[in-house]
Every structure is written in structure tokens, then in C-alpha cells.
Design a protein that fits this description.
The protein is of the alpha+beta class and 371 residues long. The protein is built from nine helices and 19 strands. It has helices at 12-17, 37-46, 66-70, 121-131, 154-161, 205-213, 223-232, 259-264, 270-279, and strands at residues 21-25, 28-33, 48-52, 57-62, 86-92, 98-105, 112-116, 137-140, 144-150, 172-178, 181-187, 195-201, 218-220, 284-290, 301-303, 309-319, 324-331, 341-346, 349-356. Strands 10-11-12-9-3-13 form a six-stranded mixed sheet. A six-stranded antiparallel barrel has the order 14-17-16-15-18-19. The longest helix has 11 residues, at 121-131. The relative contact order is 0.15.
Length: 371
């Protein structure tokens, strides 16, 4: 897309004023970095990074049939989800492929609040609009911006503005007045760090952004560091590590399959998914430690020790935290055991790699102590 056709978020002027390097992403003009990807990555790991994720799609699904209709297309049990909780899930097509991954929760008593990926949101909303029935209604919240604050100091920063937020646990959500406006807020994150997502009315976005940046512990962070952070956290990026051909079993996302839903088998693609759970898939997503040479980027071939190509890298790059190159990709299950020695082919040269556990860097989400 050209600069003229890229959409902008309500924070576009603020990014440009801060000297951000802007790129096209998901159809939007977005900041890829401010002072540099490495510095921003490390700042988020050590302090608090502020991300503009307003390009993501936000919506409400309301009505008495909202949850039963939504559950036709996702494998999570939202009927038993308590108010104030959210859950990661997968929007599945009829073949059990992942059309998108998403967050859906109950910040109040009005059905579900759902956030989907930027590049898929138009297709997701069209799919839901066409397929929801009964009295379930979809309302696209295109009048809101979305901010994410991530890092070990994020909770202290947010508690300064609303002390109750310190008590919120991982995967909890709420609707409340914050920064003087109507907000949806959740505590999770796409970096592996503790933090919050804050949905605010678009006309308040720049004020809230600037208010958070007044705290010396907070710096603006671009999409470059967001990608390296989520890679270290072992989190898939839709359109790269998972797509409409990938099943939850292949993608290593079986935690999103609720036991009750597997028993009922009443969601899109259940036949394929249950068969793969029973018999095993033909490929699985693995983490790789690349032991030599240049980073193995998306598209690099994965080979066995005899040089036979067995798979493909879907994400990869240097890990600033670990000081070595890491990657994710797909291989047949017999090559997926931890410690399996493989090769990645970078610029025509095979380099040693080893299957390792993900996340590569330990996730640090805040979970409440059990009573």
C-alpha cells in the first residue's frame, strides 16, 4: 500500500512528533521504532513500554444468544467464563484452520468484548456479521483506540492512576472510568511481560498516551520491539506462525481447547481437531535455538541432519535477552522432541539448530496467589 492509502490511528501525529520511523503494517501507518529496536526491547524488559495497538479490531457481541453463537466458531467455553475475566481463543473455519487468534472477555454484563488482529479484522467482522444468528449482534468499536503498557514496572505505573488495577490478575478485565473516560482494560500482554491493554475513546487517545509518557518509567515502543518481544515469549503471529490452514493442534495451541467443548465437539472443524488430538498431526510448531551463523528468518528451510528438508521457519531473529538467534517453525512430530539436532538453511548455507522449549524467555504475567 502507498502512504496515501494507509489508514492512521488516532496517535499518528504523536508518533511523528516523537520522531518515530513509520511503516505500513496491517493496512496502517505504524511506528516500527523510536530510538531503536534493541533499546526499546530492553526498556520493555526492564521498565515499562507503551505500545499503540489501535490498528487492532475491537468489537462487542451482545444479546441473549451472543455467547452460544460465538462459541460456534471458537473452541473455548465462554458460557462458564465469569464476569471480569477474558480468554485467548481461536476463530476457526469449517476445516478447523485458524482464521485468527483473539481475546474475548466479559468486562461487564453486556455479552463479549473481543479484540482481533489488524490484518484480519475486516474479514473477521464480515464473517461474524454474516454468521451470527438469533439475537446476537455485532457492534464494531471503530471509535476507540487501544494502548498496551508492558513491562515489570507497568503495574506500578497504572496503579498510580487507579489503585484497584494493582489487584487485577492475569486475564482479568473490567470496564471503568480511567483517565476521565470510559475504558475497557485487561491485564495480559503480547510480550511475555506483565501489563495492561487500555481501550479508550479515540478522541481521548492522545491525552491518555501523553499522560502515561509523563512517567519516567514509560517510553513509547514500536512494532519492531513488539515482534522481538513476542518471539522471545514464544507467541505466534497470525499470518506467519499460524494461518487459516493451521489447526490448533499443529500450532501448539491446544490450551485454547476447553475440555467441555472437546466433549461436545460443537465448534467449527471439531472433526479434524479431535482426530489430530487422537492420532497426532502431520506437523507441529517448535522452538529452535540457532547455534551458528546469521538469524534464520521466515521462509528459511529446516532440514534434518542428513540435509533433507523437513519444514520451514515461520518467525526468527536475534534474541536481545538471550544473546543468540532463535526461531519458530514447523516440522513432522518425530523431529519435535526437545534436544533434537536439526539444521536451518540461511542464504543457502546449513547452520546447526536444536529444538528447544518455548517460551524462549520466561513469561512474567502476574497471577494472583491462590486462596
Amino acid at each position: 500500500m502507498t502512504d496515501e492509502t494507509l489508514k492512521t490511528t488516532p496517535l499518528n501525529a504523536a508518533h511523528r512528533a516523537a520522531g518515530a520511523r513509520m511503516v505500513g503494517f496491517g493496512g496502517y501507518d505504524m511506528p516500527v521504532q523510536y530510538e531503536g529496536v534493541l533499546a526499546e526491547h530492553r526498556w520493555t524488559r526492564d521498565h515499562a513500554g507503551l505500545f499503540d495497538v489501535s490498528h487492532m479490531g475491537q468489537c462487542r457481541i451482545s444479546g441473549d444468544d451472543a455467547i452460544s453463537q460465538f462459541e460456534r466458531f471458537v473452541p473455548g467455553d465462554y458460557a462458564i467464563l465469569k464476569a471480569g475475566k477474558q480468554k485467548y481463543s481461536l476463530l476457526l473455519n469449517a476445516e478447523g484452520g485458524i482464521m485468527d487468534d483473539l481475546m474475548a472477555g466479559k468486562p461487564d454484563h453486556d455479552g463479549l468484548y473481543v479484540v482481533v488482529n489488524a490484518g484480519n479484522k475486516d474479514a473477521d467482522f464480515a464473517f461474524l456479521q454474516e454468521n451470527l444468528s438469533g439475537d446476537a449482534t455485532l457492534k464494531i468499536l471503530d471509535d476507540r483506540a487501544l494502548l498496551a503498557i508492558q513491562g515489570p514496572e507497568a503495574a506500578e505505573v497504572m496503579a498510580k492512576h487507579e489503585p484497584l488495577l494493582a489487584e487485577m490478575g492475569f486475564m482479568e478485565c473490567a470496564r471503568l472510568m480511567l483517565f476521565g473516560c470510559d475504558c475497557f482494560i485487561s491485564r495480559s500482554g503480547y510480550t511475555g511481560e506483565d501489563g495492561y491493554e487500555i481501550s479508550v475513546p479515540a478522541d481521548h487517545a492522545e491525552r491518555v498516551w501523553n499522560t502515561l509518557l509523563e512517567d519516567a518509567r514509560v517510553k513509547p515502543i514500536g512494532l519492531g520491539a513488539r515482534d522481538s518481544l513476542r518471539l522471545e515469549a514464544g507467541l505466534p503471529l497470525h499470518g506467519h506462525d499460524i494461518d487459516a490452514t493451521t489447526s490448533p493442534v499443529e500450532g501448539g495451541l491446544t490450551f485454547a481447547l476447553s475440555k467441555s467443548r472437546k466433549e461436545r465437539a460443537d465448534f467449527n472443524g471439531a472433526d479434524r481437531i479431535l482426530k489430530e488430538l487422537a492420532d497426532g498431526p502431520s506437523r507441529v510448531r517448535v522452538g529452535l535455538s540457532v547455534k551458528e551463523g546469521a538469524p534464520a528468518r521466515e521462509g528459511a528451510e529446516i532440514a534434518d541432519m542428513e540435509g533433507t528438508v523437513i519444514g520451514t521457519v515461520t518467525s526468527g531473529g536475534p534474541s536481545p535477552t538471550l544473546g543468540r538467534n532463535i526461531a519458530m517453525g514447523y516440522v513432522p512430530p518425530r523431529f519435535a522432541d526437545l534436544g533434537t539436532e536439526l539444521k536451518v538453511v540461511v542464504r543457502g548455507r546449513p547452520a546447526a539448530a536444536e529444538v528447544v522449549a518455548t517460551p524462549f524467555v520466561a513469561q512474567r504475567y502476574y497471577r494472583k496467589p491462590k486462596a
